[in-house]
Amino acid sequence: MIGGRVVSRVWNEHLLPRFTALTCSDRGTGRWRDQAVSGVSGDVLEVGFANGTNLLHYPASVRRVYAVEPSDVAWRKAAKRIREFGRPVERVGLDGAVLPLPDGSVDAVVSAYTMCTIPDLESALAEMRRVLRPGGSLHFVEHGLSPDADVADRQHRWTPRWGTVAGGCHLDRDIPAIVEAAGFNLSDLETLYMPGPAFAKPFAWLSIGRAEPTT
Q1: Is the model's pLDDT at 136 over the cut of 70?
Q2: Which candidate, 178, 175, 186, 173, places its Cα nearest to that of 212?
Q3: Which contiguous run of DSSP H or E holds residue 49?
C-alpha cells in the first residue's frame, strides 16, 4: 500500500508533468496555440501554465502574465522560457478554482489543454469570469467530447481509467457547452480532429475558441 502511494506520488508530481510537456509540445500543438491567443493583449491570466509553452506564442501586446500552475516540476521547467519572454510572469496560484486576484483585474484569460483536468471546472470558469475586466475575453484550445457517436462512446468508457494515469484528464468533457453554461458567449469557435491515426480520435477532438462573459 505504501509502495503504491509512493509510485503514485512520483508519477503525479514528477513524471506526469514531463509526459504532459511531451504530448502537448509546441511541435505538435503550436499552430492551435497561435490561433487561440491571437488578439490577446494587456494583462493575461493563464490557467494551466505548465512549462510555459504559450509564452512562445503571445503577441507583443501582452504586458504581463499571471500563471496558475499546480506542478512545481513544470514551473521549474518553465524558468528558461520565462527569462526569454522578457515581460513579467508571476505565479499566482495552484488552483484555477480559487484565484488570488481581484475582480476585474485581467484583460484576458488563456487556457490550453487544461480544462480536461480541472476537478471543479464550473468553479474555475466562474473565477475566470470574475477576474476579467469589462470587455475581456477567455481564449482556449482544449481537447474534449467528439460529436461522433462511436468516438464519444470510447471517450466515455475510457475516461475513468485514463484519468487515473493522466492527472484526472477527462476525454469526454464538452468544453464549448461547459463554457457557455458558465456564463460566457462564444464569439469564435473552430472544432477539428488533430491529424493522426483513427485509433487516437478519442484524444484528438479540439475546440479552439474565444468567449466573452454574458451581461
Answers
A1: yes
A2: 186
A3: none
Domain ranges for the chain: 2-213
Does domain 2-213 fall into CATH 3.40.50.150? yes
CA distances from 151 to 17, 45, 147, 167, 183 (A): 27, 33, 8, 21, 28
pLDDT tens by residue, 63-102? 999 999 999 999 999 999 999 999 999 999 999 999 999 9
CB-side neighbour CA atoms (13 Å) of 125: 26
Q: What is the pLDDT of residues 97-118, one digit of tens each?
A: 999 999 999 999 999 999 999 9
**Which among 84, 75, 27 is positioned nearest to 55, based on CA atoms?**
84
